[in-house]
């Protein structure tokens, strides 16, 4: 298989630097440079923006992003074993790749990137959802990033784009779709990775909206959806019993049947309910 930039094929890079994927780091390497280039292209025009990549490993997607014209790539890598391989890529693209060693959950990324920027990553399975939630819940909106193009386990991807009355619909779908356009742009089989995971993967693209899709207090929305989906098989009049006095009347007032269940209610309905009850208590974390 040829390369996109004159650097060695990824299998050679992994062999030369002894980069055996570590399960405890959530590593599954994507070695086909045609696929990594396809993911980079799915992120749109990269020529005028910085790009954040988390968990580059041997640098397959990193090379794709640079070859597709990213102005600058900031790659955050926790595994020190990958740093020499990434240094070789940096040398091939002078001034366009900054490698930051550390945990993406602990690094102030704004200090390394110029807004607006894009985030493109084959996220480590063990921290992917937590990173997504952080990027979707900044202190101010619109966020510093303009789009997220992220690979997840397929089941997680389906949860992000799910619609009401489907098996995967829940709080993650509401959180993502409240402020973003979300769609699956690519699916990949286990054999595309080394080592092969037990599940299929999918690339999701989330494009930030200028404003949330419907007005409401975001903390109220988080609180309501936590209560509703933590007891998703119960009718809303039961799962939201402690939300506000006379909850049945509140639900009816915004057009939601008290006997409905959380999975039947769309984002607009939950936002209307959030406006009706306001915010009075901390929201729990998205599950």
Describe the fold and architecture.
The protein has 287 residues and is of the alpha/beta class. Strands 4-3-2-5-6-9-7 form a seven-stranded mixed beta sheet, sandwiched between helices. The chain folds into two domains: 10-208, Rossmann fold; 218-277, rRNA adenine dimethylase, C-terminal domain (Helicase, Ruva Protein, domain 3), CATH 1.10.8. It has helices at 10-17, 33-42, 60-67, 83-92, 128-136, 154-161, 171-179, 218-230, 236-239, 247-253, 267-277; strands at 29-30, 50-54, 72-77, 97-101, 117-122, 145-153, 180-188, 193-194, 201-208.
Helix and strand sequence:
HEHEHEHEEHEHHEEEHHHH
Give the radius of gyration.
21 Å
Gap between N and C termini: 41 Å
Oligomer: single chain
Quickly give the structural class. alpha/beta
Could you say how many structural domains there are in total?
2
Q: In CATH, what is the homologous superfamily of the largest domain?
A: Vaccinia Virus protein VP39
CATH architecture label of the largest domain: 3-Layer(aba) Sandwich
Brief write-up:
The chain is α/β, with parallel strands linked by helices. Helix content is 34%, strand content 18%.
SSE diagram, text form:
Layout: H1 10-17, E1 29-30, H2 33-42, E2 50-54, H3 60-67, E3 72-77, H4 83-92, E4 97-101, E5 117-122, H5 128-136, E6 145-153, H6 154-161, H7 171-179, E7 180-188, E8 193-194, E9 201-208, H8 218-230, H9 236-239, H10 247-253, H11 267-277
Parallel strand pairs: 2-3, 2-5, 3-4, 5-6
Antiparallel strand pairs: 1-8, 6-9, 7-9
Helix pairs in contact: 2-3, 8-11
């Amino acid at each position: 298989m040829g390369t996109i930039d004159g650097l060695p094929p990824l299998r050679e890079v992994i062999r030369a630097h002894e980069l055996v994927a570590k399960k405890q780091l959530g590593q599954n390497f994507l070695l086909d440079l045609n696929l990594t280039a396809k993911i980079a292209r799915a992120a749109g025009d990269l020529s005028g923006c910085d790009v954040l990549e988390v968990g580059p490993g041997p640098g397959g997607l990193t090379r794709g992003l640079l070859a597709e014209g990213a102005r600058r790539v900031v790659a955050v890598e926790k595994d020190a074993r990958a740093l020499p391989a990434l240094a070789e890529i940096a040398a091939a693209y002078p001034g366009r790749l900054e490698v930051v060693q550390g945990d993406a959950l602990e690094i102030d990324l704004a200090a390394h990137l110029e807004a607006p920027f894009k985030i493109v990553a084959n996220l480590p399975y063990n921290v992917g959802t937590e990173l997504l939630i952080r990027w979707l819940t900044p202190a101010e909106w619109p966020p510093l990033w303009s789009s997220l193009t992220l690979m997840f386990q397929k089941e997680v991807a389906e949860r992000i784009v799910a619609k009401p009355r489907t098996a995967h619909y829940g709080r993650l779908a509401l959180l993502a779709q409240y402020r973003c356009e979300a769609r699956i742009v690519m699916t990949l089989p286990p054999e595309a990775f080394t080592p092969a995971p037990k599940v299929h993967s999918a690339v999701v693209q989330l494009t930030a909206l200028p404003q949330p899709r419907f007005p409401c207090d975001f903390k109220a929305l988080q609180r309501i959806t936590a209560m509703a989906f933590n007891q998703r098989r119960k009718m809303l009049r039961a799962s939201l019993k402690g939300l506000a006095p006379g909850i049945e009347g509140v639900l009816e007032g915004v057009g939601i049947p008290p006997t409905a269940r959380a999975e039947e209610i769309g984002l607009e309905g939950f936002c209307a309910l959030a406006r009706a009850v306001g915010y009075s208590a901390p929201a729990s974390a998205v599950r």
